[in-house]
# Entry
Amino acid sequence: MSDILNGALSQLKKAARHTNVPDEVLEALNFPKEVLTARISVRMDNGLRRSFEAWRCRYDDTRGPTKGGIRFHPDANFEEVVTLAFWMTFKCAVVNLPYGGGKGAIRVDPGQLSRRELERLSRAYVHAFASMIGPDRDIPAPDVYTNAMIMGWMADEYSSLVGYPCPAVITGKPIPLGGSLGREDATARGGFYVLNNLLAEIGLEDCQRRAVVQGFGNAGAAIATMLHQDGWKVIAVSDTGGCVNDDSGLDPQKLKEAKKKHGSVTGYAKDANGKKIKVMQRDEMFALDCDLLVPAAMEDQISTDNADRIKASVIMELANGPVTSGADDILEKNGVIVIPDILANAGGVTVSYFEWVQNRQGFYWTEEEVQHKLRPIMERESGAVWRLAQKKGITLRTAAYVLGLERIAEAIQAHGTQNYFCP
Ligand code: GLU
# Structure
């Protein structure tokens, strides 16, 4: 078994020690319910046919249809997809959505494809996995390097396969195709609500409000903007092109413009009109003196190699799995509080759930209504995770897993366990 999946399952084992969940329930959660690997062949613009590896995993569906994104990434692989589906299972349970967890991926660098190739690839994915997905079975959404346009193509392809419009098969769609207002920045907004709800508890109420954000995609750019508007100083930001740092604070709007113009946030340094902006590598950025570090890029970024150098007092995981389980132990020892992914970034899937509900009832909400419904969920569940952590003397990550596990276990146990059948 791969390191990434082992790490995820060790989180489950750790949480299980703080519950009375029977072994037969834990055994059921040790491996996925269903995984399909497919080869997707697409005609490229130059006439050549190319084949891509693709996967979809439905990890567990006890609490409802499986839910989770599809990523397009050159490093995507089977174990990663299964692990991400495992995390989705717990994430949906932590925010108490009536969903299980799923995930999908294509091993591809979408930056190398033309728009027409990307459309053909997206539609071919739906063909390959049509028997697995469905509005009552498995509902995909955007993830790394996929977006609303791709979701729109996929929904359209599924609808033409079943013969009627079926927007509820996928979430994160463009608004005119049945997308939900507020979905685009929901991951960041959910994290922002969690952060503000726990601000005093995690000791950030009277801090200097210096934040570092790794990743400037959908989640990273939005959280940098929200923090900046709320009076935080975003002192460093990065993307795949590198990191920029200014201790007096960066302007997220200008970062967006620099990324558009130069292809990377590091272009901010070029456009700084003589202002001293430092350009640095990832680990140097992680070692900056700050109050809040927000990894919003990929998994496995903070590991046993660099965890000791982190000076932030709080890490809020907007990416999935950015802190390895080995790093978790070091951070705990060093007193760094980690707000775990399955709570911090759950705003995305929560608004996906709202989108699915709106599609099914054919009645659409305003952006205010969406936020009005998102906020209490993030506040209620972050409060519950915090209290559980305090009560049991465990980290927020373990507490989030305990909360999720108890909810999943309750559903599995409702069918009866050994105690019921052989009292
Ligand atoms: N890909 C996002 C996540 O990892 C969203 C999933 C969804 O909306 O279903 O949470």
